[in-house]
Known about the structure:
alpha/beta, six-stranded mixed β-sheet
Amino acid sequence: GAMLALADAGLQPTQDSYFHISNYEEVGHGAATGFPNDLADLISIDMAVVAPQQTSDEYSVTICAKDSAGPYHMQLRRELETLAETNQLRYATDIYPYYGSDGEAYWRAGGDVRVGLIGPGVDASHHYERTHRDALENSAKLILAYLLSGSNTKSITVTSYEKI
Length: 164
């Protein structure tokens, strides 16, 4: 939805952007290779665990602070939180001690850029996964806000894009 909204609005990301779609995240090497040398940030997009001990829910985009591999880049996390707040998105910040992402595979392969992890809240991972449209919409809008924000611009409003 985020890419379609960009195209339909005639907008372009404020920086070069690469979309790496992995189908090996579950076995730990999905994002281990295939990135250009000029990469500055890696934003992994994955499901956010909805469970009693988590702050994630099925209506929000979740920004992961840390998972089993350790903490994600704090400044990037704070930038994502600021973008969510500025754009009035429903979001949560959470920690997943038993979870890994493509960002972890990238680090283990020697990647050395800012890495973040976001995603919609999803119930029943690896089974009959369920979420709410709002979580998908908030996730797509956060992706859009990030793509439209330059390193010096953090007040982009994306709430008017209805094609998400």
